[in-house]
Amino acid sequence: SVPIAKQLASIKALGKGSDLEKGFATVALVYNNSADPEGKLSKAETKSLLQTQFWGFIQGQENKPKYQEIISALDEESENKIDFEDFMILLVSLTLMSDLLQEIKNVKTTK
């Protein structure tokens, strides 16, 4: 498969894109590369993608009730698939509860 960086570089509109735009484009590309032809992920695929591509944000969150609720919903035997909108909601939810978010907030922005 084509590396994400190369896929990003091929999107002309992002040539002078902001860091935020490139960040969201990266999320969309990672999702699309894993999604089925209908643009959806199974719950198992979603859980796997989070564990491989979002590990820094979910690491150490296992004991938090909200994390357990999210992962339990992905573990349920269900044929329901996750679309991009639901995937983004999962990412935001996991980010907001993450210990890594606090570390990011503490990064120095001035010399």
Automatic annotation (TrEMBL):
Listed name of the protein: Sentan
Gene3D superfamilies per the UniProt record, alphabetical: EF-hand
PROSITE patterns reported in the protein's UniProt record: EF_HAND_2
Any one GO molecular-function label of the UniProt entry: transition metal ion binding
InterPro entries: EF-hand-dom_pair (IPR011992), EF_hand_dom (IPR002048), S-100_dom (IPR034325), S100_Ca-bd_sub (IPR013787)
CDD domains documented for this protein: S-100 (cd00213)
Segments forming domain EF-hand: 62-97
